[in-house]
Specification:
Layout (H helix, E strand, L loop, with lengths): L2 H20 L3 H5 L2 E8 L11 H14 E16 L2 E14 L4 E15 L2 E16 L11
Parallel strand pairs: 1-5
Antiparallel strand pairs: 2-3, 3-4, 4-5
């Protein structure tokens, strides 16, 4: 694969993340991560997840509590180095919980990717807020203060 093809494949991985979250496709979502992947959702009181199993548990609970989810991603910066890569991608995320509460966050993901026999996967995904997240009407979020 050329570097440009790798970059396009990694961009697609980030788009697949958004689509599988928003359409609540748990198995397809979890498959985007390596078994030992780390996911840090950033501010909001959710602990860092240190395996694909922990990622599955988090999203399963989210999907059980949410009725609607929506992500936009843009502004990719990706650097490929052989079978690994790093990148950032902006996100805007919103959701509605089953109790009617809403939530939203805006920021970027700082990602580490790994090439596998099945294509590129997330090795690590860290969310960084660029605007204060709004979890005030969402029962699953811990309030800080």
């Amino acid at each position: 694969m050329s570097e440009l093809e790798d970059i396009k494949a990694i961009e697609r991985l980030t788009y697949e993340y958004a689509m599988t979250v928003d359409t609540m496709q748990l198995d397809a979502l979890v498959d985007l991560f390596l078994p030992e992947a780390v996911f840090d959702p950033g501010p909001g009181g959710v602990p860092v997840m240190n395996s694909r199993d922990e990622i599955r548990d988090f999203f399963q609970a989210l999907f059980e509590d949410a009725t609607n989810l929506f992500h936009l991603t843009s502004n990719h910066i990706i650097d490929v180095d052989g079978d690994s890569a790093t990148g950032t991608v902006y996100y805007q995320a919103q959701g509605v919980a089953s109790d009617g509460g809403g939530f939203g966050a805006n920021g970027y993901y700082a990602d580490t990717y790994a090439r596998t026999d099945d294509g590129w996967k997330f090795r690590r995904r860290d969310a960084a807020a660029l605007l204060d997240p709004d979890y005030s009407n969402y029962s699953m979020a811990e309030t800080e203060g």
